[in-house]
Give the backbone structure.
Amino acid sequence: MKMDGAENFYRQFHDRTFKYGERPLDPNVRLAITAEQSYLNSRPGQAAVIVASELLCRLSQKVSLAFADFEFDQTFSGPFHGSAHSCLIDRMQSVAPPGQFTAEPARSNDYIIHLGSQGDSWIAHGSDWNLYTGPSPSPLGKAQSANIFGSCLATISAIAQIFGHRLPGELKPTVANALSLESSATDQTDWLPPESYLGELWFVGCGSVGSAVAYFLALAGYKFDAVLFDKDPIELENLTRSPIFHFDHVGEPKVESVGRFFALFNINTKAEPRWLHESSLWAERPAGRPDLIISAANEHNVRFQIESQFPCPQIYGTTGKNWLSNVFRHIPPGPCSSCSFPPSKKETSCATGEVTDTQNPEKKVDAALPFLSFAAGLLAAAEISKLQLSNFPYSKDRGFFEPLGGKPLYSTDIKHRDSCVCADRHRNVHKSVLQGTRYEALCFTELAI
Ligand SMILES: [Zn+2]
C-alpha cells in the first residue's frame, strides 16, 4: 500500500475517530508511560504497560516508554518475551510506521501516564479484579493474584479519560470491579489462571471487538481451540480499534491476522474467511460443537443465523455511541442476542454506533474510539474466563463500561423479547444439541432463565 507521508497516513488512520465526532490528540505532544517499579515486577503491572503502549500508539504519533526496561514474566507468551522496550516499540512501529516511538526518560513537556499504586499527580492501578484511576496513592489493597484484568482495564479507563478530557492535569478518583461489574472495589479473588483450557471457541466476527476479545484471551494466557469467521479484509481505518491488526496486514482477511497472532501462542486455529451463512462449517455443525460462540458481528442477519440454530452460550462485546462499551452474556434458554438486537435496521445501527460511509452509502462502518473497542474485548474475555469459576455468575447479563460516567461499570438484566426467534426453540432438542459441551451445566438452570 502506497502512502504519501505521515499526514495522509494519520488522516486515514484516525478516520473512525473523526466519524465518531471526535478529534485525535495533539500530534505535537509526546505521551510518556512511566510506572512504579514494584508494579513492573508483577504480571498485572507488565500487562498494564503492554496495553498502554498498544493503545497509545493508536491514539498519538509520539509515545515514549519512560520506565526502566525489563524482561517479560515467563507466564506471558506469544510476542511478549524478552526485552519489554524492544518488543513494545517494535509492535507500536508495526501499527503506525510513521509514528515516533522511543524508550527514553520523560521530558518536562511530555504528558505522563503513570501506572502503579503511587507516583505522579494521577495514576492508573489495578489489583486483582479491582481498578483505580485518580490521584496518588491508590486505595486498592495489594494484589493477591496474578490476574491481569483489573490492571488492563484501569489502563484503558485512564487513557479513555485523558482522551476525553484532552490531557488533563488530574483525574478524579474512580474505583470499579471487573468481576462483579460494579463501581466499587471488592476483595473477591476468584480467577482463572493462565494455561487454563476454555474449550472450542467460535469467533463470529473478527473486526475490532472480535479481535480485541481474541487478544485479551491470549494475553491472559488461556488455551483454547478457535474457529474464526469473517470475510472482511483489513483496511487502514481498522488499525486503531484492534490490538492485533498491523499496517502490514492491510488488504488481507481479518481472520488471517488473528489466526497468525494465535499461532504465536500455539493456539490451534481454523480460519474461515466467509460470512457465517456462507460457511459449511456452520451449516454442517454437529451437535456438541462449539463450546462457546463469541458473536462479535452484526451484518448479514447473523444474530438470526445463530439464534435459529440452538446455540451454545454466547459472550461478546459491543461499542456504542456516547462513550459506551458493553459485554453481553446469553446462556440458553435465557434472553438471546436477538432479544437484545431485534432484526430491525434502526435498532441495530443505534446499538452499535454504526454510521453511513458518505463515500459509499451502501456500506455501514462501525465508528468507535480505540479504547472502547479494547474495553469491549477485555470485558468479554474476562467474562469468558468467569464461566469456569465456582461462583459464576458475578453480574447481570449485560455489562456497561462508561469511562466518562459517574459509574464506570454496572450491569443490567436482559429481557426476553416477545415474538423473538428464541421463543420457538424446542427445549429438548436444544438440550440434546448442547450435550457434552463444556458449559452445558450452566444452561437450563434457574440462573439461565
Ligand atoms: Zn430471543
